Amino acid sequence: MKSPDDWTPYRNQLELEAAEFLYTENQMSACQIDKVLYYWDITLAVHHDNPPFADHKDLYNTINATPLGDVAWQSFSLEFSGEKPAEDCPLWMQQSYDVWFWDPHAIEKDEKCHYKDFMLGDWAWHQSVCVPYSYNFALILVWDKITQDLQTHGAAFIPIILGSDKTMVSVATGQNDYYPLYLSIGNVHNNVQHAHCDALVLVGFMAIPKTNKKGVNDPVFCKFKKQMFHSSLSKILTNLKPGMMTPEGCGDGHYCHVIYGLGPYIVDYEEQVVLAGIVKIGAEGTWMEYNSGL
């Protein structure tokens, strides 16, 4: 239990409230924050004291160090690992791209879930049990891997629903170095669905590689963008993979068990192309794709 006087990473309540006012309520630009802190510093100099923050960078660094719940932000870097030209190597091949994320597994373990059907329940049913269908007048049973393992019987199935939309960030803020990745589950209780809140969580910021106008249609660059997207998703979802085959304790940790599965990925058309791994349309009108390895 934290002490009532513990404002970490802020030194006191004043720093916390100043950060909230400057960054959240007023949403000041960096230059305006610097100007306010400069005047604040002048008024405090006669008292041999300092303002809460030295400049906007100090403010941002303090905010980034603020612990959010029990799940900490993590990051990893990606870069081009293919063959590079000896001369005039494009800048995107030389750069390193940072991806920030919350561990989806830790987020789901931290939530108190109410297990209901996903949409009409058909999709979750087909993922979890045998599916009979007729072929050439013969009845065939297609068993999902979940039900093949007796250890999974009795566990609640949690569909993981993902979504991303870089348009919202670029249009709203002009920021286009990253775009957000969101996560929800197919077991959201009905009253939460009707409340239109608390059913979606931001789990990461996907990096966006850039190049000049000449190289934007370069097949190597287009393929790299898709590979980086899929590699980032694979890394972010790594800790969910064990729970996709072996049930995990949830709730009381003894009798309640869950098993995860990847559900729909909700995106606009441009992100659908990235998600599908489509590079371009070939000369004969056929889709040229690459193996994402997922």
Describe the structure.
The protein is of the alpha+beta class and 294 residues long. The protein is 34% helix and 23% strand. The chain is built from eleven helices and eleven strands. It has a seven-stranded mixed sheet, with helices on both faces. A two-stranded antiparallel ribbon has the order 3-4. A two-stranded antiparallel ribbon has the order 10-11. Strand 3 (131-135) and strand 4 form a beta hairpin. It is flat. The model is unreliable at 112-117, 137-143 and 282-294 (pLDDT under 50).
**What are the segments in which pLDDT stays under 50 over at least 5 consecutive residues?**
112-117, 137-143, 282-294
Rg of Cα set: 24 Å
Give the overall silhouette.
flat
Order of helices and strands: HHHEHEHHEEHEHEHEHEEHEE
Q: How far from one another are the termini?
A: 41 Å
The number of helical segments is 11
Approximate helicity band: 25-40%
Report mean pLDDT, rounded to a whole number. 75
Strands across the major sheet, in which order?
Answer: 1-2-7-6-5-9-8
Overall strand count: 11
The biggest sheet, with number of strands, parallel, antiparallel or mixed sense and barrel status, is: 7 strands, mixed
**Beta-strand level of the residues, as a percent range?**
15-25%
The computed structural class is: alpha+beta
